[in-house]
């Protein structure tokens, strides 16, 4: 989800809810402690230099159980970050403390913002040297070969 999309969605909501992809809710008293933009320059295993820019939100649970972030307040935080930090529209990555700090994508299911699981991948598969995964075949579904003229005792084997 892009920053512009979350701003549009926030204008339609009465309250802000986040949940993990497995349905576990982020406690309602969460805080958005950071909104920022991160630039990452790196080189992949194929030697290609890459550049990524993402908008980051950090969610944090405090012992402030009465706290509730409103859509208007989150919208204000986003607008402030755009103004003061010159953040550009881009894909949002959410940092959230689980067993360790996790990085998640962001989606919306019509009611709740969903922290989507992210995975790693090789960006240079053609240069990496890792063989492509072989396709699994069910041998029982292979067509039978036509009968051979070679029979036991015929001397052809």
UniProtKB/TrEMBL annotation:
Could you tell me which InterPro entries the record lists for this protein?
DUF6428
A Pfam family in this protein? Answer: DUF6428
Q: Which domain of life is it from?
A: Bacteria
Official protein name in the record:
DUF6428 family protein
- Where does this protein come from, organism-wise? Sphingobacterium suaedae
């Amino acid at each position: 989800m892009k920053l512009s999309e979350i701003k549009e969605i926030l204008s339609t909501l009465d309250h802000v809810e986040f949940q993990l992809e497995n349905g576990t809710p982020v406690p309602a008293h969460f805080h958005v402690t950071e909104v920022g933009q991160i630039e990452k320059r790196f080189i992949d295993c194929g030697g290609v230099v890459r550049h990524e820019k993402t908008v980051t939100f950090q969610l944090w649970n405090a012992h402030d159980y009465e706290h509730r972030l409103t859509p208007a307040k989150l919208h204000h935080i986003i607008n402030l970050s755009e103004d003061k930090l010159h953040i550009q529209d881009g894909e949002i990555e959410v940092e959230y403390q689980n067993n360790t700090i996790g990085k998640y994508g962001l989606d919306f299911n019509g009611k709740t913002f969903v922290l989507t699981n992210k995975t790693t991948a090789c960006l240079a598969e053609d240069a990496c040297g890792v063989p492509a995964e072989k396709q699994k075949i069910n041998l029982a579904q292979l067509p039978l070969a036509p009968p051979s003229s070679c029979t036991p005792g015929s001397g052809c084997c």
